[in-house]
Amino acid sequence: MIKAGIIGASGYAGEELLRLLATHPSVEVVAATSRNLAGKKISSVHTNLAGFYNKLIFENLSNDDIKTLCDVIFLAVPHGASMDIVPELLEKSKCKIVDLSADYRLKTAEFEKTYGHPHKDPREAVYAIPEVHDVAAELKNSKNPRLIANPGCFPTGATLAVAPLAKTGVLENVIFDSKSGITGAGNTPTETSHFPNLTENIIPYKLTAHRHLAEMKQEISRLQPGFSNVCFTPHVIPAARGIMTTAHVFTKEKYTTKDVKEIYSEFYENKPFVQLVDGVPSLLNVRGSNFCHIGIEAEAANNRIVITSAIDNLVKGASGQAIQNMNIMFGLKETEGLWFPGLP
Amino acid sequence: MIKAGIIGASGYAGEELLRLLATHPSVEVVAATSRNLAGKKISSVHTNLAGFYNKLIFENLSNDDIKTLCDVIFLAVPHGASMDIVPELLEKSKCKIVDLSADYRLKTAEFEKTYGHPHKDPREAVYAIPEVHDVAAELKNSKNPRLIANPGCFPTGATLAVAPLAKTGVLENVIFDSKSGITGAGNTPTETSHFPNLTENIIPYKLTAHRHLAEMKQEISRLQPGFSNVCFTPHVIPAARGIMTTAHVFTKEKYTTKDVKEIYSEFYENKPFVQLVDGVPSLLNVRGSNFCHIGIEAEAANNRIVITSAIDNLVKGASGQAIQNMNIMFGLKETEGLWFPGLP
Amino acid sequence: MIKAGIIGASGYAGEELLRLLATHPSVEVVAATSRNLAGKKISSVHTNLAGFYNKLIFENLSNDDIKTLCDVIFLAVPHGASMDIVPELLEKSKCKIVDLSADYRLKTAEFEKTYGHPHKDPREAVYAIPEVHDVAAELKNSKNPRLIANPGCFPTGATLAVAPLAKTGVLENVIFDSKSGITGAGNTPTETSHFPNLTENIIPYKLTAHRHLAEMKQEISRLQPGFSNVCFTPHVIPAARGIMTTAHVFTKEKYTTKDVKEIYSEFYENKPFVQLVDGVPSLLNVRGSNFCHIGIEAEAANNRIVITSAIDNLVKGASGQAIQNMNIMFGLKETEGLWFPGLP
Amino acid sequence: MIKAGIIGASGYAGEELLRLLATHPSVEVVAATSRNLAGKKISSVHTNLAGFYNKLIFENLSNDDIKTLCDVIFLAVPHGASMDIVPELLEKSKCKIVDLSADYRLKTAEFEKTYGHPHKDPREAVYAIPEVHDVAAELKNSKNPRLIANPGCFPTGATLAVAPLAKTGVLENVIFDSKSGITGAGNTPTETSHFPNLTENIIPYKLTAHRHLAEMKQEISRLQPGFSNVCFTPHVIPAARGIMTTAHVFTKEKYTTKDVKEIYSEFYENKPFVQLVDGVPSLLNVRGSNFCHIGIEAEAANNRIVITSAIDNLVKGASGQAIQNMNIMFGLKETEGLWFPGLP
């Protein structure tokens, strides 16, 4: 059994790792840290886990403690905290690390521009959306084969929506109009997450300057070099989970829906977690699962294609993809512990 | 024009008073106090009021200031704060007061038992559900004809549900299983109001010991002296507004649905805000309005009657009823400024 | 009192006309037709109206009957039905007509292209968004001064979002990504309106070919002649009411947010129902009201401006705007019967 | 592998069986029938299953066909249809049957009284809530050891809520005030399931005469012989899944919360799917899972105990419990294929 530790296990990403790993046949969670909850039973905090993890309690462990206990560490900490932890963990242990924060996703220069302060540990991690990159090969070739930067939720939905077209090199202009469930904003109650403010509403935010834009541009330009004509406007919808990305894609040439479907079918062949659907995808059909469902409709008249993609922001957009990446790191089958349908 | 002041205008009850008074033909709001928001324009905080109250700003007024400006003062302050303010306002001005807090609702002894601390101002106010009591007459006979204790939201829905049967003296046992929108808990974000915790859920709370129980018992026993066999369990539903009260009523004798409907029709004759409906009421049909809709179904076999009542907790359960009571205090038509339908 | 009739009073638009006209000081509803509901009391069907319209019942009236009873007729019938009724009503009576259907919105040629069949009555009506056009003047100059084509819900939100920029002539490319409450789809239960399919979801539909696109293009090109670079993708959100339009606007030149706000302030001066808000608008702040709230944010780097507009689809997007237009037709104050805040 | 067939696989119960069995290690679904959907791929209808059941299509199979294919048959047909199918399946094959309909739940006399028509096949099945009855033993002793009557959703939540007290023989009066997600009403769109009617609402229905009452009475009186003082009022809440039962229990003697918790702990020892929680349970914590969470609070003053239980109506209230019962029938571990946490 792979021994796993979760640093920052009290938030949504940590909770979701615990939920998913509870039934992973090759992993045992041996440590879950939380300063605030130290001493409490896991299932007394995350009550959906009653019956699981009967002996596991939240602990306030040092890095030293955790690295001796674990084969793999998931960092589910706030952005900015990972770069304080990773160097020591990598250098003083054999642990593999999957970092769910934003710290190692961007090239250092882009990180500093986007976040407005220097990066404390400018080492490169492997940024891993396994349906877009050959993660196993990239790890092999990396200077840091034990460090994966797990992608952001919006960039996962957005990149999967346009990757096949980007790879074909035909993007001219892309506007991502994304709609996310409110769990994306974390489990601390806020004005936006206050039920009377969100029910029967939809809340656009960071209309022109969300930090995930840099990540989208970086990843899409790896597929279509030189392309940077990307806009991104996120919204919060009255839903707990899920990201629906509506990608308004303008291309250099005209396409029919059939053309585009062929490009996507080929690109996503043998990628079990990406499923092309007739019509439009539904957040409910991917809920709780690691799937990404994609719908395609071309508007030849305007050289426009509307791609819609649906993921669960906490699974394919965070903890599920982290486990998928862990599976790859350890040479397990990519789908292990993740092969179950969404919960409509 | 009646000059009105609202003390505590930043919360839901205050916001709702501002919404309702914006179109009241006989009232002008001249003061709205809030310590935190002092200096801000009303409509910059309560954006639904953009276009209204163009000159009104939140102020941090002293009692002295406010009592010289106003003919009527609405107290929309946290429970416990009114009893610090009322004595001075009553004694040093001619202002009329409608207190939306719980401070003057219970007889002093019952208050102290329920809230666990002494009452600072044990004077009696007129507790006013106008469909149950003759408020004008009670004010006339009161030692404190300028002080109205505006009822709580749950007690309003519960009392209206059973008053006609209580008046008939036939109650044996009543269980109020009430379901409230989350605005009843105020506008500060909490774990319970956090969207992911409430959506697709229903949250029972204070199962056996909610403070409103004392208020229910007091009012129902005024109608059926000696009766105290009342249980109350509230729930929060995934809705912003509204209280659905399911009253499980056991009676001394058997009734048919028709019998009960006659009792209610007679009791609520000439009470424009109470409407008996076929089948069951809907929170949507009373939303935003001062109406209470009531449905009736008897189960003769068990000497049981199920009464369902629907109100908007912020209107009939708080600010609307406060204005209705103000209308009565000033000799206006009870419905003035409040006669519009619910918003489904 | 203006005597009003509503043809098709059983649907959402009809219901909303009844709700709004219940408190209009200058209008009395004298007829409400519905074939299916004929004989039923209005308030037994639209229970939110209990206490109003105590004598009004749904009737199955002929055009002859209705035109002798009414000064104004609201057509709240399915698209395609108005053109069967309008000619006779106009020619054989003095009635004024506000048509809420799509029949008279488009120029005849465009109508036939969009709807795929001939128009039975190719007369021109006055298409009336009063904040964009001088409706009174247009009526005066029209050959059909008694016929108003009331705009569609999506086109109202979209046109108000970009009209000031279009008038300035600077649009280069506009993508409307619109999000509507499900009442826009009518009150017949469908797969899309089935609660388990919509809750916690957002459903994109007619991604490239919604019929309202033609209406948007027609109206925007009246402001910026020759401009037709408009894309439109609607979504249904888990909400009953409201349309949030996210307009991704690409302009010929760069603008700052401040620049754009000045253009909008000037354009919408003296238009009481359009309010510019800081940040982004909220569907809740306009709910139940005739307001349109607009937020503005420019992204100078990309020559892009994101305009967000919020309306209630059943009020400003249908019945409220119809009454606003009726007010103008009859020389009443535009805001009469409509001047109340939204219900958050 | 156990070969399973699902008759009536297009409804919610059938869909949920397919979802759950997709990952059951000992079961292969070999047939799924639906008259309307015959010929369609499973995953084209239940899109959450994209990636699963790649070869399975809906078929319009005869009973003859299905009984030769299957070791176990799940009947997910409308009430009244099972009794037409069961006799032939039992008598002409070796198939085991789990009937999810109401047909075999009640003793024949009670069935006829409740449903108002004769029962076509008055044989006794084993009614199986495995936490309340020893299902394996009952099957062994039954004349019909191959037929399980799977309990109704409300009776499951209600019976689990009070079984330990009933077993102790102390019930005096029980009122079940139950709140269900709308999937309980099936997947055909109706007025009640129409999103604008249910959002921000709660709908009481069948206030005194729901058919599940007979089932509750039958099962509770098996535990406390002679007891029939049970009332039941269901509500629909704006949620897709879940049943929250608020059981207002009046007992012959006084209990403290601690007393009651001990009774429940003992009763549910070694019942992995029932978990006692601190405070109140949450529908979200059991969503998608086979768990029942129970909260307990006693009000000694009134001899009242409020028990709250939460289940997923489609899992523990239907398909999950059906699989649990199938596991028992085949001598598998009760939790096989069902041991995963809820999805909050």
From TrEMBL, chains A, B, C, D:
Pathway(s) it belongs to = Amino-acid biosynthesis; L-arginine biosynthesis; N(2)-acetyl-L-ornithine from L-glutamate: step 3/4
The EC designation for this entry is: 1.2.1.38
> Does this entry carry the keyword Oxidoreductase?
yes
Question: One MF term in GO for this entry?
Answer: N-acetyl-gamma-glutamyl-phosphate reductase activity
InterPro entries named in the record: AGPR (IPR050085), AGPR_AS (IPR023013), AGPR_dimerisation_dom (IPR058924), AGPR_type-1 (IPR000706), NAD(P)-bd_dom_sf (IPR036291), Semialdehyde_DH_NAD-bd (IPR000534)
Keyword terms? Amino-acid biosynthesis, Arginine biosynthesis, Cytoplasm, NADP, Oxidoreductase
Q: What is the protein named?
A: N-acetyl-gamma-glutamyl-phosphate reductase
Name the Pfam families on file. Answer: Semialdhyde_dh, Semialdhyde_dhC_1
Q: Which organism is it from?
A: Methanolapillus millepedarum
Active site positions: 153
Limits of the Semialdehyde dehydrogenase NAD-binding domain: 3-139
Where does the record place it? Cytoplasm
- Family classification: Belongs to the NAGSA dehydrogenase family. Type 1 subfamily.
Q: SMART domains under this entry?
A: Semialdhyde_dh
Under the cellular component aspect of Gene Ontology, which terms does the record hold? cytoplasm
What Gene Ontology terms for biological process does this UniProt record contain?
A: L-arginine biosynthetic process
The main location class comes to cytoplasm
* Top-rank taxon: Archaea
Q: Which gene encodes it?
A: argC
Signal peptide positions are none
PROSITE patterns attached to this UniProt entry: ARGC
